Amino acid sequence: MTPTKPVASAPEAGLHNEGQAPDAGFAEYLARPEGPQFLNPDAVRSPGPDVPIRTVVADGRHGPVAIRIYGAPAAAGSPGLVWLHGGGFVSGSMDSPESDYLARVLADQGTPVLSVDYRLARNGVSFPIPHDDALAAWFWARTNAESLGLDPDLLCLGGAGAGGNLAVGAALYLIDAGKPLPAKLLLAYPFLDAELPPPAGGLDGEVMAGLPRHLRFTLEDCIRTAENYVGGPVSMAPSYAMPGYADPAGLPPAALLACEYDDARGSTEQFASALERAGVPVSYFLAEGAVHGHLNHTAGLPEGQAALDFLAGQLAAVRH
Fold this sequence. Notes:
Blueprint: H1 26-31, E1 53-60, E2 63-70, E3 80-84, H2 97-108, E4 113-117, H3 129-144, E5 155-160, H4 162-177, E6 185-188, H5 205-209, H6 219-230, E7 254-261, H7 265-277, E8 282-291, H8 294-297, H9 305-316
Parallel strand pairs: 3-4, 3-5, 5-6, 6-7, 7-8
Antiparallel strand pairs: 1-2, 2-4
């Protein structure tokens, strides 16, 4: 694994923790269904590109699943991306910047994006419902790819944070079910392990101490996140729910985006190493100066461009 890095930079500009509860952690995700606030809310952001958008509905095992399609029908032989937002399984939506802004940028560059409105693990919802919603969206995309101008065999699957978990869990299911796999997995700071391994080389203690509490992931935070999603003890979790513990053999090539100042970076690093040992091609990008939720906090800002370029380049490389 040879990391791809942007030009060295300082920690994300304008980060501050004003108004953030010191004991937030997982509780803030529960308290904010729309997702955590920007770290730099006063930054002047460029709007996302104006692209064609429409919403369709897939029939899911637990009811309809909305899919927002960004971009016009693609040229023949073009890849597409099914994308799942993050938010600890309990917050976020298709309107989250790491979903909406990313989808606008990629669609504007010629890759249609299908953003999935999976059910959140709130009010009695738990695994396998979000997992099944992700699969429903994937099967809809495969079935309807040609009507979107897409080659079904060039469809990619990905997500950020909890969405990255759902993407890998869905891919593992597809392996077991003998179904066609995504051409590539695109994963941004995915939550794959209930107990995070330490990042290689450690973390800058001074920088980490200055981050808002909801961006720090203690052991308790991770266990609570996992147990809320699983609907019981982590020991009950199948590999589809906590794919960091699964055998990754047979997964498609993966592109992994990690953040320098992120407690969860160790999970991404560990997964990248496991993929390599299993013979799965891996592309790894370390966003220097970045914190967890990088695609949210830097949407519309120059600081996020390198990460978007990495993901766009990985999609552009998907060909027969």
